[in-house]
Amino acid sequence: MSASPTPAIEVKNLVKAFGTFYALRDISLQIAPGESVAIFGPNGAGKTTFLRILSAISRPTSGEIFIHAQRLHEATALIHRQLGVIGHQSFLYDDLTAEENLLFYARLYDVLSPSPRIQEVLAEVGLRERAKDRVRAFSRGMQQRLAIARAMLHNPSLLFLDEPYTGLDQHAASMLTSWLSRLRSERRTILLVTHDLDQGLALADRVVIFLRGKIAWEKTARELDQQTLRQLYFDSVAGAERRFGATA
Amino acid sequence: MSELRKLLALIRKDLLAEFRTKEMISSMLMFALIVVVIFNFTFDPGSRATAEAGPGILWVAFTFAGVLGLHRAMVHEVERGCLHGLMLAPVERGIIFLGKAVGNAIFIFLIELPTFLLFSIFFNLDFWKGIDKLAVIFFLGTIGFAAVGTLLSAISVNTRTREIMLPILLFPIEVPVIISAVNATAGALAGKNWSEISGWLKLLAGFDLIFLMVCFVTFEYVLEE
Q1: Closest residue of A to B23, CA-based?
Q2: Largest CA distance in chain A
Q3: In this complex, is the C-beta atom of A165 within 8 Å of any C-beta atom belonging to chain B?
Q4: Do A100 and B2 touch (CB under 8 A)?
Q5: Residue B198: count of CB within 10 angstroms of its CB
Q6: pTM value?
Q7: Nearest CA-CA distance, residue A110 and chain B, Å
Q8: Residues in chain A with pLDDT values less than 50
Q9: Choosing a second label site near A223 at 20 to 30 A (CA), which of A36, A180, B131, B191?
Q10: What CATH number is given for A1-82+158-163+188-248 in this structure?
Q11: Where are the domains of chain A?
Q12: Cα angle at B159 between B155 and B162, to 5 degrees?
């Protein structure tokens, strides 16, 4: 009998409170290595807070988090070495060039031979010609592509994406989708937070819905098609609004 | 060794971005020079009152200009979520603090030299007299100021009234550093020797050490929500 593999991410009874407001209430979730999970939920459901806690940017009020069997707040640096994050913001410095930004992050991540790796990731996101240009001069789509290059620089096995499609034009969005599909095929563990149900479903092995800081339900992507997901999602949100008011 | 490389990368990044735009340095320098010019019209050069108030004027210029720089430096980190980018990197949060504090200290040093030059012209002082002692005093005073300022700018930048909050938080804590620096500067300008100002220098160095250690350890808790 083979033992089940250690989860890539294991969250136990996670609670996050801001004063008397509970952003997350007793969240427990396991994500297997190589699994891709999409988290959906209306504004204020706790999705971003959840991702921030899992990234060790924010501390939980209570609960435990293990990444590759290591307690998050005891091995933060080690875990960050394996983690790539793409968020609402690019984490890039406007007054540095694309290349300088990547070189800076490469040094922080101890990337071996940074220069060839930087050229490689810039080529992957189609920004090699703009390597010497300051980020200030980049469009939103180009900045997001550079943010993808930054997140991939250290070749992470774990990826957290928080609304990565926000503000992207069609070209940048399709580039992001094909890149995420490739990462999925490489069996990297992906946690994707998005409002876009169709995109999320297309990229996920499992779908989790957050409502009022709780997991309302979760299903494998195989159990769902776009229509069923929409129906379930909107029914859940409407149900929560009926019970708790419009902020659900 | 790896942490030292990361520290140097953090400092280099701040210097590169600033020397490219000169946005922060120019506003800090302008502010410091304006303070010296205004006080020049208030006091008679060479008078006893000037000699007594001079060191205070100098440190008012340094610290108020320094606050501008500290604030801008942290705003740059927050604008595109760069501070989160740093927090997500495998770098000790204390190293992030040191990188920011050293960068801030360098910018404040850079405005101190021209400000003191203008001060010595306006107030009829010999620029070279006691310059070795003044260099040590400016160095120690700036280290203490930048250390606490960096920590508190990371707190204030997340508040709604961040421009106002930083000086309100910073100056009460900096009182021992500023008092020591002003008194040591007064001694150096009056031509006192090392042994006569050593008490103030020891006090400055002591506060620097305490502030650096406390800020290094607590920066992690300031960054995390």
Answers
A1: A95
A2: 58
A3: no
A4: no
A5: 13
A6: 0.90
A7: 8
A8: 1, 247-248
A9: A180
A10: 3.40.50.300
A11: 1-82+158-163+188-248
A12: 85
